Amino acid sequence: MATRDDVLAALRGVRDPELGADVVELGMVKHVEVAPNGRVEIGLALTIAECPLRGQITDDVKRRVRALPGVTDVAITTSAMSADERANLMSVARRRAREHARPTQVSPTTRVAAIASGKGGVGKSSISANLAVALARRSFRVGLLDADIWGFSLPRILGVSDRLHADDETRLIVPAQVHDLKLVSTGLIAESEDTALMWRGLMLSKALEQFLTQVDWGDLDYLVIDMPPGTGDVQMALSRMLPQAEMVVVTTPQVAAQKVAMRVADMARRSHMPVIGVIENMSWFECSHGERFTLFGEGGGEALAEELAVPLIGRIPIDPAVVASGDHGRPVVLGAGPAAEALSAAAERLVELLPPAAEETCTGRLARLFDHLEQTSAG
Questions:
Q1: How confident is the model over 78-95, as pLDDT tens digits?
Q2: How far, CA to CA in Å, does 166 sit from each of 20, 103, 173, 217?
Q3: Burial of 293 by CB count in 10 Å (0-12 exposed, 13-18 middle, 19+ buried)?
Q4: CB of 74 closer than 8 Å to CB of 66
Q5: Rounded to the nearest 10 degrees, how much is the dihedral formed by the CA atoms of 24, 30, 32, 33?
Q6: Percentage of residues in the chain with pLDDT exceeding 90?
Q7: What 8-state DSSP symbol labels residue 289?
Q8: For a 10 Å CB count at each end of the chain, is N or C smaller?
Q9: How many CB atoms are located within 10 Å of the residue 48 CB?
Q10: Which of helix, strand or coil describes residue 311?
């Protein structure tokens, strides 16, 4: 006679075709009862009452359970999941998608920093570009991916006009080389900087997929990704395709901006993408007399970092040099000034929080230990 455990084992072969996981793992099996006469009663909770896959799932359940020894009948009752149950189900589905991600041209050992914001206009692209350049100046091998498909701005910020092309032998896209880093952007594919890309959700996800699977990134220490603002298709696709991605949230000091930024952090965590820190941009403006003005309020970055229980990686002041350098294709970290210093320091902090994979090996840890001992002895 089949037991309850036998029934659950059989049900693990029933998969939700849309979510790619079995009904037991997804929490869809609410109860299983096996009667002495061989009748099996199963309660299934579906995502919605009128689930289009209801018939397919229940038929599969009956077929698999009826095949068990001693089973004479299978009775199935269905119900709709609660909001909490649906949230748990989607969490499991997203985690599985990340664990079974399709291989990409980005090495699993590459550290991936997704620079994200809840809304546009907070300086996310400028921060992405300058962090990438600052990392490259430290002799790291760096790639920069402009995932802001519609709102591409990195080519102008970095002063690149080259067009992307494919290698004749490998058929892989060759990134543009600029400021000692590799850049890929739809701005290097579009007809001109003024061309509007009128792409819908599926095309956005496909573009990101191509940038990850058909670009010859080579061996990178870091891949910095300039994310589009908000919590849309590209963000969800990235969490599925690059399991090693970790997020840095950019906000301004304004409380309203901080609350909006919280949404993108919430999306990351629901997608099992770690949030490693917060960068507050436009923190203050310092006049020539040394007086500071908090034009956009204050405290938003610290409040967000505290709420997320992550470090505040940096506070970037308002600096006219940022605008001028972005317009002329020479990132501000290549020069001097308050924003350059703050962004360079933020890059240093990012390396501390997200050290290169090579430094995370046993050999790397020993090397850091010996360096620390030598510095201690010298002091």
A1: 998 888 888 788 778 767
A2: 33, 19, 4, 12
A3: exposed
A4: yes
A5: 170
A6: 45
A7: T
A8: C
A9: 10
A10: coil
Q: In CATH, what number does 111-352 get?
A: 3.40.50.300
The tokens of 365 are what? Answer: 């840890």
Enter the tokens of residue 53. 């896959």
Q: Which two tokens stand for residue 240?
A: 């599925």
Secondary structure class of 271 (helix, strand, coil): coil
- Give the whole-angstrom CA distance, residue 177 versus residue 197: 24
pTM of the entire predicted model = 0.70
DSSP string, 44-109: EEESSTT-TTHHHHHHHHHHHHHTSTT--EEEEEEEEPPHHHHHHHHHHHHHHHHHTPPP-SS-TT
Residue where the block lists tokens 């301004």: 252
Q: Looking at the DSSP assignment, which residues form a beta bridge with residue 22?
A: 15
The matching CATH number, chosen from 3.40.630.30, 3.40.309.10, 3.30.300.130, 3.40.50.300, for 4-99 is: 3.30.300.130
Displacement of CA 348 from its chain's centroid (Å): 21
Cβ count near 103 (within 10 Å): 9
